[in-house]
Write a structure and sequence with these properties.
Helix content is 25%, strand content 27%. The chain is an alpha+beta fold and 652 residues long. The protein folds into three domains: 261 residues, TolB, C-terminal domain (Neuraminidase); 90 residues, Immunoglobulins (Immunoglobulin-like), CATH 2.60.40.10; 132 residues, 60s Ribosomal Protein L30, Chain: A (2-Layer Sandwich). Helix 7 runs antiparallel to helix 8. The longest helix has 22 residues.
């Protein structure tokens, strides 16, 4: 019994000695200490190869010299020898797991450098179990831990990523970066850095290929730097960053220029309240040019640099910028916003959210209440352990464009494109691109264009055609839109885009619109009511009211018809000499007699609406044609929908 007790006591003593049985700098033998100090001097000189040699000599003399093991592991880590460094850290921990808590931080950094993310996170978490002398270091390690936990999962679940260089017509042996592209994908503007000078270059796509780039030229490019630009959806509004210009508000300000008659206007400082005494840069303009997102170091933010937004007022001034909030902005640096044409998906760069490396690309989606959702990392290998460049995404959400300094490039930094994986895509968006002509002369004309949300009756976008009669509007899915084109002295034209139920929008709408001149006739003075049954010869071609809707099989007007009917009312009020005939048409579903009656009743419903708004019934007549004047096939749902229409013609 005594023998067993002595053995137990001996084992306890040995266990205690094993935890503390090592030498430090204070207790190591002189010979080992001599090698140690020699090695330490080499580390001061950053000659880690020689340092390793003498640390190993110290350990050979004194195998349990804990400080020599610790610095030997550090030296191997600096030299990139992960296995020997990790083995050294492991020996130190076996000697005494609490000897130097910071060893877990160094060990975590080592594992992270070698992409052993789960192991790195474990070491960082162990380090955080000890009291921290520095809140700054604690916060840094907490961030590293989150990053490594994310990276451990992300690297095991890589997203599709196959970047393709955009070629020699876009790239060169210089630095190309910060791309902006029009909604139709036919024009790209980007920054080129040449001998310290930043200028804009532009390229056009023809037959699916990019033509050779050209310098954007004056008045935008100057002898100073221009960069970090954003192009509106139609390519006619450019906002960009310029620094240290005469009259600037701060170190870097936002400027804008507009394309007019084929030329860019003289750049104008966008002014207060967007520009201030701080740094403003990296703008992104929304598709309809009524929202501006940008990066600023101004006070009131969440971190070093934040993303802000401002709305364009009716008088073309800008509202007081608002911070996008903590789901996007962090105590770190949040920069390079890109608002997709859908108006709901924002891409940006941040070093404050959990990610792969120094800074990653994220997206946030606008919620129903207007706030921004939680940041989502685009995934590995889009994001790596290095700093990532800003990214933009095509209208259809399938293609992303970015700059990279990867080895297969033509120069220092090139532009690339790749297929964006489904989880990182924005809401489907398409666009309508049209040219407006005079119906008689067939010459392009300038006209006003309004895109109206039929659900809310609000104007979603308003613009004018350019000198070529062209316009482009973005059409996000999720609602139904009315497009109205009008010009003084002409009858208006309408289109309908039923997108509420569509989840995919692959094909754009390419239109040619011919506006009819309003016939010049004397003002009608008679008060004798027009007989609705009297058919007068039309003085205009039919104008289809594509946004007048009825309940199925009924003559009851839907509330979404009001926008179009009010536009017709305004036309009649502005031109009191016009008399119109309202025509109703149906498809061929049902009997001839039922369709004729339905078409007559629908025309009368429009008649009644206009009379209620104050239009004299003496100026209105109606006629139903049933299914007799089809303008499309009745063999498809789309064709039948086109045949079910209401229209008007000028008859007097």
């Amino acid at each position: 019994m005594r023998t067993i007790l002595i053995l137990i006591i001996g084992l306890c003593v040995l266990a205690n000695l094993s935890a503390q049985d090592y030498h430090t700098r204070k207790t190591a033998p002189a010979k080992a200490l001599k090698h140690y100090k020699k090695a330490q001097q080499y580390t001061y000189d950053k000659d880690y190869t020689k340092a390793v040699k003498f640390f190993e000599k110290a350990i050979k003399v004194t195998p349990n010299f804990i400080d020599a093991h610790l610095l030997l592991a550090d030296s191997y880590a600096v030299l990139g020898n992960r296995d020997k460094a990790a083995a050294g850290f492991e020996k130190v921990v076996r000697f005494d797991p609490d000897y130097r808590p910071k060893i877990y931080y160094a060990w975590g950094v080592l594992e992270r450098q070698h992409k052993n993310y789960a192991a790195a996170a474990d070491k960082f978490e162990r380090f955080l179990t000890y009291p921290q002398k520095s809140d700054e270091l604690k916060q840094k390690v907490e961030t590293l831990t989150k990053d490594c936990r994310f990276a451990a999962v992300a690297t095991k679940n890589p997203v599709p990523f196959d970047p393709i260089n955009m070629g020699a017509n876009i790239n060169s042996d210089l630095m190309e970066y910060s791309p902006s592209i029009t909604v139709d994908g036919q024009t790209i503007i980007y920054t080129v850095r040449m001998r310290g000078q930043e200028d804009f270059y532009v390229a056009e796509k023809e037959n699916g290929e990019w033509k050779a780039r050209k310098e954007l030229g004056e008045p935008i490019n100057t002898m100073d730097n221009e960069g970090a630009q954003s192009l509106s959806a139609d390519g006619r509004f450019l906002v960009y960053t310029a620094c240290n210009r005469e009259g600037d508000f701060g170190s870097c300000d936002l400027y804008f220029s507009e394309l007019s008659d084929g030329n860019w206007t003289a750049p104008t400082n966008i002014g207060a309240p967007i520009n201030g005494s701080d740094w403003e840069s990296q703008p992104s303009i929304s598709a309809n040019a009524d929202e501006l997102y940008f990066t600023s170091s101004r006070s009131g933010g969440k971190g070093k640099k934040d993303i802000w937004t401002s709305r364009r007022n009716a008088d073309d001034t800008w509202s007081e910028p608002e911070n996008l909030g903590e789901n996007i902005n962090t105590p770190g640096t949040d920069i390079s916003p890109f608002i997709h044409p859908d108006g709901r998906t924002l891409y940006f760069i941040s070093d404050g959210h959990p990610g792969m490396g120094k800074s990653d690309i994220y997206l946030s989606r606008r919620q129903a209440d207007g706030t921004w959702g939680k940041a989502e990392n685009l995934g590995y290998p889009i994001n790596t352990e290095e700093k990532e460049f800003s990214l933009i995404v095509s209208t259809d959400g399938k293609t992303a464009y970015f700059a990279s300094d990867r080895e297969n490039g033509l120069g220092k930094t090139d532009l690339y494109q790749f297929d964006l994986h489904a989880d990182a895509r924005p809401t489907p968006v398409t666009y309508a691109k049209a040219t407006v002509f005079d119906a008689e002369t067939k010459q392009p004309i300038r006209a006003n264009v309004q895109l109206i949300d039929l659900i809310t009756s609000n104007v979603h976008t308003e613009s004018n055609t350019d000198e070529k009669g062209e316009f482009l509007v973005v059409l996000p899915s999720g609602t139904d839109f009315a497009l109205n084109v009008n010009k003084q002295g002409y009858l208006f034209h309408s289109e309908n885009f039923a997108l509420k139920e569509k989840n995919t929008l692959d094909e754009p709408y390419l239109l040619k619109i011919y506006l009819q001149r309003i016939p010049e006739t004397p003002v009608v003075t008679t008060t004798k009511p027009t007989n609705p049954s009297t058919v007068l010869p039309p003085k205009s071609k039919p104008v289809i009211l594509r946004n007048v809707f009825f309940e199925t099989g009924s003559a009851e007007l839907k509330i979404t018809s009001e926008s179009e009917l009010n536009r017709l009312k305004d036309l009649l009020a502005e031109h009191p000499n016009i008399h119109i005939q309202i025509n109703g048409h149906t498809d061929n579903v049902g009997s001839d007699s039922d369709n004729l009656t339905l078409s007559e009743n629908r025309a009368k419903a429009v008649f009644s609406y206009l009379v209620k708004t104050g239009i004299s019934q003496t100026r209105l007549s109606t006629r139903g044609y049933g299914e007799t004047q089809a303008i499309d096939t009745n063999d498809t749902p789309e064709g039948r929908a086109n045949n079910r229409r209401t229209e008007f013609v000028i008859v007097k």
